[in-house]
Amino acid sequence: LADVAVVPNESYREIALSRGGLAPEKVFVVRNAPDLDRMQPRPGEANWKKDRRFGVGYVGVMGRQEGLHHLLAAIDHLVHGQGRQDIQFLCVGDGPERRHLMELARELDITEYVSFPGRLPDDEMVAALCAADLCVNSDDANELNDKSTMLKIVEYMALGKPIVQFDLSEGRISAQDAALYAKPNDPVDLGAKIIALLEDPDARQRMGALGRTRVEEELAWHYQAPKLLAAYAALWPER
Predict the structure, then answer these.
(1) In sequence order, what are the residues at sequence separation of 6 or more whose Cβ sits closer than 8 angstroms to the Cβ of residue 226?
(2) Per-residue pLDDT for 238 more than 80?
């Protein structure tokens, strides 16, 4: 019944056209995109790495669908299964699962290797992520997440950070060659991809640069704003 629909990607557009029955000219794709004035690479705040060799960052909501339980399982495997005690993980954000995740980290005996500072002011959050060697997206592989565009992916790219994430359709469309892709919902493979990228500084630099360039040339908010204005303008074509 909508006069126009605003959707975040082509997967949602197809749903609006097929299940929703809307005409193509009524559906506008406006991607979830970072503001480059806010998300600029800068010197990192490395204290959170606790003098460990590597740092891995996450930022976002902490609900069940964000799959952070997969990330904790990967950390458990790396620390206790592979003896990797040289990596510090930082999970910035809040949500209904945060307390449960902190308890799970205690049960897995990995609290020394992962921090949950909650929400941070933008400057602190950006400085922390800029100190990370890579960033991670552990979104649970399900039908919703497969078709959804996650802002954290393009924020990581805006900061020039290479990414490790599960292989989901829209996640791959966003990150392209700026990410390594693990088998969906497989924490062991997620950990393996993290190690592979940490041990390859040339790949990290190359992938981070590709991501930043893609945001600068295609995905930043200033490319999306005109599309949103066009959706509103379509409501009054005579004007």
Answers:
(1) none
(2) no
The reported pTM is 0.94
Phi, psi (degrees; rounded to nearest 5) at 7: -130, 155
Q: Minimal CA–CA distance to 87: which of 207, 198, 190, 181?
A: 198
| Cross-strand partners of 56 | 89, 134
Compute and round to an integer the Cα radius of gyration of the chain. Answer: 19
Model confidence at 237: pLDDT above 90: no
Residue 63 structure tokens: 């609900």
Cα-flanking dihedrals φ and ψ of residue 58, to 5°? -140, 140
> What would the pLDDT profile of 22-31 be if each residue is shown by its tens digit?
999 999 999 9
The H or E element spanning position 172 is helix 169-175
Measured distance CA(62)–CA(69) in Å, rounded: 10
In 3D space, the residue among 152, 155, 204 whose CA is nearest the CA of residue 179 turns out to be 204
